[in-house]
Amino acid sequence: MNCPDTALTAEERHRNRVGKVYCYSYDAAINDTVPSCNRDIGLPSIIKCNSRVDVIENHSEADISFRPELIPGTQIPYPGFPSLNVLPIEHAELKKCGLNCFGFPSKYPNLILTMRQLPQLPAAVQLAQNFIGKTIFVNWPMMHEAKVRLFGMKHVFAFFASILMKSNINFRI
């Protein structure tokens, strides 16, 4: 169902026209300050902005619909982006189980995931050297980047006294 242009005001026709197509990209060589678009509501300027904007010429006005395509070189899953691809799922099924959702049982089927049995992990002291000082992503599904400073399993913890990893201390609780 389309609204004919004749039924629109001049302002609506102007707002609905095909405009320029902008492509925003990360560029470490650029270190500009982008002025605030609205200081009145507290939006500060962006200092040291490492991005550039290019106007894409020769785009077809006949082909203006959104195309869900990945840009070549896109890493999937993107580090830190919540994805079921990173979970060791053995089986998935839709099943009505009355899952408690905000204090009430769900009315519709729920996606029930069965995870694969994970292999036995080495001792914490052996694993610690692979994690301490490294960057990981935590708090799935809303991932946050974190640096590991302490590593523990059950009652054994290992941590490094310096960032250079010159010494480690192990203790039991």
- Strand-residue proportion: 25-35%
Number of separate structural domains: 3
Strand order of the largest sheet: 11-12-13
How many β-strand runs?
A: 13
Radius of gyration: 26 Å
Low-confidence stretches: 160-173
Enumerate how many helices there are, as a single number.
2
Proportion in helices: under 10%
Overall geometric form: extended
Separation of the first and last Cα atoms:
68 Å
User: What oligomeric state best describes the polypeptide chains here?
Assistant: single chain
| Major sheet summary line | 3 strands, antiparallel
Structural class: mainly beta
Mean pLDDT: 78
Order of helices and strands: HEEEEEEEEHEEEEE
Topology:
Elements: H1 10-16, E1 21-26, E2 32-34, E3 46-49, E4 51-56, E5 89-95, E6 100-101, E7 104-105, E8 110-115, H2 124-131, E9 135-138, E10 144-147, E11 150-153, E12 156-160, E13 168-172
Antiparallel strand pairs: 1-4, 2-3, 5-8, 6-7, 9-10, 11-12, 12-13
Quick recap of the structure?
This protein has 173 residues and is mainly β. It has helices at 10-16, 124-131; strands at residues 21-26, 32-34, 46-49, 51-56, 89-95, 100-101, 104-105, 110-115, 135-138, 144-147, 150-153, 156-160, 168-172. It has 3 domains: 7-56, no CATH class; 84-115, no CATH class; 124-172, no CATH class.
Describe the structure.
The protein is mostly beta strands and 173 residues long. The protein has 3 domains: 7-56, no CATH class; 84-115, no CATH class; 124-172, no CATH class. Helices cover 9% and strands 34% of the residues. It is built from 2 helices and 13 strands; from the N terminus they run H-E-E-E-E-E-E-E-E-H-E-E-E-E-E. The strands form 6 sheets. The chain has a 3-stranded antiparallel β-sheet with strand order 11-12-13, with helices on one face. The chain has a two-stranded antiparallel sheet with strand order 1-4. Strand 9 (135-138) and strand 10 (144-147) form a beta hairpin. Mean pLDDT is 78; it is low at 160-173.
